[in-house]
């Protein structure tokens, strides 16, 4: 069960990239890097919450939170990417990584509020994912 936080992170990022057919960025994009192009999906580790078991239930190791972003070139492309992300999560509420069952839920999608004038951030959303094993 070691290294599950990273294994789930890498699995999610690769799945998102494949489902949406876009570039992937580990962490928030630095737009000056050549690999940070739109359209893209970016993902970062966000939090760990210890698991709590009730009597008669198996205790989860904990809950991991991941924060992601979708950045598109224009609004229609962004809408298509959001639909793809929703579709992937509807089909993959649970999956297996490193022989471990992982439950996964998309908690929130909201409009990205840019803090810079980077044109790449004009058409973006932020999303939160929770994974439990």
Structural class: alpha+beta
Q: Tell me, what's the shape?
A: elongated
What is the arithmetic mean of pLDDT? 91
What number of domains? Answer: 1
How many separate helices? 2
Strands side by side in the biggest sheet: 1-2-3-6-5-4
Which blocks of ≥5 consecutive residues have pLDDT under 50?
Answer: none
Helix content: 25-40%
**First-last Cα distance:** 9 Å
SSE string? HEEEHEEE
The fraction of residues in strands falls at 35-45%
For the secondary structure, the number of strands is 6
Task: Tell me the Rg in angstroms.
Answer: 16 Å
What summary fits the major beta sheet? 6 strands, mixed
What does this structure look like?
By secondary structure, the chain is α+β, with helices and mostly antiparallel strands. The protein has one domain. Helices cover 26% and strands 38% of the residues. It is built from two helices and six strands; from the N terminus they run αβββαβββ. A six-stranded mixed β-sheet has the order 1-2-3-6-5-4. β4 and β5 form a beta hairpin. α1 packs across α2. The radius of gyration is 16 Å and the shape is elongated. The termini are close together. 23% of the residues are buried. The model has no long low-confidence stretch (mean pLDDT 91).
Describe the structure in brief.
By secondary structure, this protein is α+β, with helices and mostly antiparallel strands. Helix content is 26%, strand content 38%. It has one domain.
Task: Draw up the topology in text.
Elements: H1 4-20, E1 23-26, E2 40-50, E3 62-71, H2 75-91, E4 94-97, E5 100-111, E6 124-132
Parallel strand pairs: 1-2
Antiparallel strand pairs: 2-3, 3-6, 4-5, 5-6
Helix pairs in contact: 1-2
């Amino acid at each position: 069960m070691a290294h599950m936080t990273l294994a789930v992170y890498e699995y999610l990022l690769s799945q998102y990239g494949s489902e949406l057919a876009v570039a992937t960025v580990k962490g928030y994009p630095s737009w000056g890097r050549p690999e940070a192009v739109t359209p893209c999906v970016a993902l970062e580790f966000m939090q760990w919450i210890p698991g709590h078991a009730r009597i008669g239930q198996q205790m989860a190791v904990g809950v991991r939170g991941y924060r992601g972003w979708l950045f598109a070139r224009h609004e229609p492309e962004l809408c298509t990417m959001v639909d793809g992300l929703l579709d992937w999560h509807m089909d993959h509420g649970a999956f297996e990584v490193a022989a471990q069952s992982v439950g996964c839920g998309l908690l929130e999608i909201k409009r990205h509020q840019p803090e810079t004038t980077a044109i790449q951030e004009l058409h973006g959303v932020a999303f939160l994912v929770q994974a439990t094993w």
